Amino acid sequence: MENTFKTKYLILTGLFAALTAIGAYIHIPFPTVPITLQIFFALMAGGLLGKKYGFLSQVIYVLIGAIGLPVFAGGTGGIGILFGPTGGYIFGFLAAGYLAGFGKQKFLTKSLYMLLGLVVIYILGVSGLMVFAGLEFMPAITTGVTPFIIGDLIKVFLAAYLSVKMSSYVRL
To answer: What is the pTM of this model?
Structure first.
């Protein structure tokens, strides 16, 4: 029984790493930071797998991108992306996968933890834009946060809703 339990976790962890990579290919180009579904899948990973395996799925995603596989937005990969203007957002997926795993399977608590995950993504993303793109704080906010808030809030609430509804099917 224990091996079946671990196998199921490992399969789903790998699946969410792959889904986050697929989410990078579903993107709308934007001048500095593209709109993708990566945030949605990072949040779903934590929401369904819990903090440990949600985080691990995003670690796998970041590592396969760091070694050069084209899993980041726009089909890019390599360690240089992690230390470029969008790298902070990618590191934020780690926190989002972890934070989304907190809370009981209630929509309100899932939403709050996922919102916190989104805030961390924004903080790390804006920091990356400031350090690697040379933007000041307000231009980094208007470039890397403001255009995405509505879409990202939709992703947060959809991920919270789906993770609560699907949790009984993915019972781990």
So the answer is: 0.93
